[in-house]
Amino acid sequence: MDAQEILNLYATGHRDFSHVSLVQVCLMNAKLIGVELIGAELIGADLRGVNLTEAHLNQAKLNQANLADAEMIQACLSHADLSGAYLSGADLTYADLSGADLSGANLGGADLRKANLSQAVLSGADLRGADLCGANLRGADLSSTDLDGAYLDQADLTGADLEGAKIDRAGLSGAKMPNGMVHT
């Protein structure tokens, strides 16, 4: 299946593209609101500026995909592989990224307010300037993550691994720290 086929089927009302192989496909700026791409292979895909609001991408393979400036509000990406993905400037407010692999991903300036990142792997990820206010990061692996200038106000970091993370200049007002204490 190629990009044009996906877009044509979507235009006719088709929404379920679960388990399709779209390796290195270019869907830049496509509007795919509510699409189902569960278990789909989107490795190395060019998804810059795509609108995947309320999309279902559970267990999708998006490693090395370019999702810069993508709109993924309330998208479900639980247990998705986003390792090495480029998500700079992406809007992931209220997205479910629980158990997702975001190791080595670039999330600089991404909007992750109220996102569920519980048990997610973010080791070595770039989260500089990202907005994680109110995000659920319970049990997340944030080891060696760059959180310089990130906003973690009211975030829940209970049980999160912050070993080697750059967190000195992050906003932490009201955040629940790994030890359960609230940062003041």
From TrEMBL:
Pfam families: Pentapeptide (PF00805)
InterPro entries cross-referenced by the UniProt entry: 5peptide_repeat, Pentapeptide-BTB/POZ_domain
Residues spanning the membrane: none
Name under which the protein is recorded: Pentapeptide repeat-containing protein
